């Protein structure tokens, strides 16, 4: 009987929306959902609010639709709804219809990720949802927001971050391109996600279609394995590639040499020192110096304050030894 009653209510409210009675329908959706929530009939409330949000957004009533969408997420949290395919699909249904200019989308996303962190298995929120949202921001040209989500996304997210870094770098006429992918790859490595770091770096190289300056032998240790690596006319790319190779072996001495050789370059940009220290601690048990401040905030401020990017990084003259013969 309850489901039948809900069905009749939905039909009546849809008719109101289709007839252009948007305000009346919006208020009724809210009133009925509130009643269901008081009765702890959360599934009925969620079904109603999802239907209302989609219907109103489809009719270009973004403010009213957004209000119901946010109320749906409040109900998700109230009900401690599990993160599963059905519950995520409702979120995607709404996001596909949300105008990028609707202010309520920010609140909707905030509540959505709070829900996935609380009721899902991932501390940073659901990776597939981060991938969807990051891709959405990428398509809108909102690169800082896109990067924030893609960094905790999927394999697809990592590959997209490589392309994003190149596209973003193209907008910066003051600096080399390598610093953009360096920031992404080093963050991944600091999070001990070598797979995603590799996917992002390779995607960047493929997208940029960079000419290879040469090929060198890279030795992990004086008596260790030697591999062939491409070298580029961009010290940031060479540095990033060597860090990525080094953390995949027990090569603390080489990592320290990398730090020393490239320090004059990355010291100029706030946040990179902290990333390198985090990598040293994570992979080689090198104790981090005590520092104050917010690493990621400093990094983003240094790179993108005012939209002009960082000062031109000092290029390291020549190729350092480091096993690159």
From TrEMBL:
<dbReference type="Pfam" id="PF04190">
    <property type="entry name" value="GET4"/>
</dbReference>
<dbReference type="GO" id="GO:0005829">
    <property type="term" value="C:cytosol"/>
</dbReference>
<keyword id="KW-0813">Transport</keyword>
<dbReference type="InterPro" id="IPR007317">
    <property type="entry name" value="GET4"/>
</dbReference>
<keyword id="KW-0963">Cytoplasm</keyword>
<comment type="similarity">
    <text>Belongs to the GET4 family.</text>
</comment>
<dbReference type="GO" id="GO:0045048">
    <property type="term" value="P:protein insertion into ER membrane"/>
</dbReference>
<feature type="region of interest" description="Disordered">
    <location>
        <begin position="302"/>
        <end position="325"/>
    </location>
</feature>
<protein>
    <recommendedName>
        <fullName>DUF410 domain-containing protein</fullName>
    </recommendedName>
</protein>
<dbReference type="InterPro" id="IPR011990">
    <property type="entry name" value="TPR-like_helical_dom_sf"/>
</dbReference>
């Amino acid at each position: 009987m309850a489901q039948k009653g809900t069905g009749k209510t939905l039909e009546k409210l849809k008719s109101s929306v289709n007839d252009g009675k948007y305000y009346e329908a919006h208020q009724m959706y809210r009133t009925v959902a509130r009643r269901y929530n008081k009765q702890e009939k959360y599934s009925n409330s969620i079904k109603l609010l999802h239907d209302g949000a989609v219907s109103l957004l489809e009719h270009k009533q973004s403010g009213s639709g957004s209000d119901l969408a946010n109320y749906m997420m409040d109900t998700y949290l109230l009900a401690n709804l599990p993160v599963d395919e059905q519950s995520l699909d409702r979120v995607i249904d709404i996001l596909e219809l949300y105008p990028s200019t609707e202010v309520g989308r920010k609140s909707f996303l905030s509540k959505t990720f709070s829900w996935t962190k609380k009721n899902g298995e991932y501390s940073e929120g659901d990776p597939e949802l981060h991938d969807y949202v990051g891709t959405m921001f990428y398509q809108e040209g909102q690169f800082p927001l896109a990067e924030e989500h893609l960094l905790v996304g999927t394999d697809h997210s990592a590959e997209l971050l490589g392309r994003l870094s190149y596209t973003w770098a193209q907008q910066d006429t003051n600096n080399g391109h390598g610093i953009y992918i360096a920031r992404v790859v080093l963050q991944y490595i600091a999070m001990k996600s070598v797979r995603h770091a590799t996917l992002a770096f390779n995607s960047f190289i493929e997208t940029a279609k960079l000419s290879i300056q040469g090929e060198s032998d890279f030795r992990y240790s004086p008596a260790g394995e030697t591999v062939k690596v491409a070298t580029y006319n961009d010290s940031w790319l060479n540095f990033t590639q060597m860090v990525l190779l080094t953390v995949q072996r027990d090569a603390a001495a080489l990592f320290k040499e990398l730090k020393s050789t490239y320090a004059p370059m990355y010291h100029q940009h706030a946040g990179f020192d902290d990333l390198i220290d985090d990598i040293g601690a994570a992979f080689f048990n090198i104790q981090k110096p005590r520092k104050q401040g917010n690493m990621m905030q400093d990094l983003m401020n240094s790179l993108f304050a005012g939209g002009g990017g960082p000062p031109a990084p000092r290029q390291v003259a020549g190729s350092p030894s480091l096993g690159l013969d």
